[in-house]
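Handout, page 2. Input:
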Amino acid sequence: MAEKKTARPLKGFYKCPFRECEEEWKDFESLKEHIVETEHGTKDMLVKCPVSMCDGSVECKLHFDWKNTKFLRIMRRLRKTIDSIKNKYYNLTVEELIKERDTIATIIKSFVINGSVTINQEEFFSCRVRGCNKKYKALLGYTYHIAHYRHSLAEMITEYSNINKSEIDELKIKAELADEKYINGFNLVDVEHKYSPKHSFTAPLEFKNDFHNIDPKKDKFISKKKIEYLDVSFVAKYNAPLTENSLIHKLIYKGEVFDSKTAKLAFGMFFYNISEFILSVYFDNQSRNIFVCSKSSKVPDVLYDFKAHPSRIYTFDTNLQLIKTINFDYGAARKIVRSCNLYHFILFKDGKLRKINLNDGSCLEEIHRDGIVDFELLNDDTILCSDGKRLYKIKNNEIIHTSDYLPCAANSIVLKQPDKEIKPFMFTKKQTKHDNSKNLNNKFYVVNDDEENKMLNEIREKLDTYNIYCTTVEGEILAFKEDLTDMISVLYSFTSKLLYFPKFDVFVITDTMNNKSKVLTVNKEFIRTHLFLENNIHCSSVVFNTIVSGGYDGTVYQSYFNYNKVKNTELVKFHRSGSDLLMLDHIDEYAVLSPREGYDYSTLIVDVLEYDHYLFIFLSSGIILKKLIKN
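Output:
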């Protein structure tokens, strides 16, 4: 008699409910940690089958039939669960917070003495929390502030460090708070307000992980106290006229001089000086290595000047530890792109494109084309490149498509490949119907509605399928079909730099003639430009839901968006005096600097990139800075 077989039970898993995320976990606690620590970039969720080998799911938002109300209830419960995980409160008393946390304890005990906070009431009621410095005319305003305002741990730590002229170890603070998730702000609640020398401080500190979602309108303060302790006198010593390009021998920050090759600065910042000029940078997402390409000359790179000379590529890890250095004789590396087979295509100064093994520097293949000025790599290792005269598509080292001759010499190529889920961007409104003065190629003329619909709609429909863009030395932006058989002029301006952001599906262009940077939006609805920054930018990177840009003048900006304006914040500014580099990050320090004519090539921001909440800034003069950045 045949033995009866019993079915093996299917093992269940906790799968991440967010669309496109395929992570699964054996226990619910691991899933909770994943949801809290991962930025999924979407609010769309699915009800997924818990069986590991099954990819079945239900998209509940499409089922508004009464027969499927049970799925809607599941989705509602799922969303509530996710919200409860991501918005969990952590309530700690002062004693619990400072226990075994020496750094945090020292800071809090500087304004919470014997369990109480002393309010100095002269003309205003001032908040005593370090880093806040807000003051109110009425006791009611102060009371509301204490009850509702969520203070920043980062600002508290920064102010305490500045006042005491001491360096705070950011990594040590992270370790002290490692047992909690995303504690970055706190409230003071139930504080007794009495007109006496001491006021009780009996309630716990309330922690929440979404500090940056606080509504500032709910906390209307009169003024913010100026930080009087900040000494900016050292800045004036470096107010010298612009001199010829130079490498950096000393870095000055907050008056302290650093003359070593690498050092740790205050507030969790690090720097590395390679003592060579940097031409380009590439971050490999797979290996997590940073490739820094240096050159031997201090003269700015000239695009159509093809020369072979000794150069180096430095390989760093994300802790700015030097892994290796590889020497080349092809000239400096202008651009690096990773190929599908784990090697890298590198365009060198001699105008040749080569496939290089960056483990040992060996050349695996050389593309049979001279005088290449720029290139991009498609998904299947198909090369898109230009010699300035035409665009070429090359596969297996053979040209498969060639464009017509360009109206003038090309200087860059950009691929328009938006992400699957595009983040909403601020510039989404059409031009009004009453504004019938259209701008095509910066030539203004009045057209009627019929002409507009016929001409503009035709161009927009075409451009929606064109994903290859290039810029010319005359500032024109051209778009091409995938097979390079058609060419459309998108914009004729003074464009010298074209950057594309797949996350937002927009371009950022630099207009060096007018010293402005603009956002260019190209889609089925409109082709429009909007002011982005009153300065020329050389590089940009998407950091969280903002754009961080590096300028020709040595300034790094962070841009925040909403639906009607851009808010630009200066993160850091570099100023060179001879071989000394001044790093500034406060508005009072900027005010001491005297304006200069022209740009200093030594402080040009070559590239900016973000990894693991750190911003990496690369200067032309060989300085690499690693800086914590807020989410």
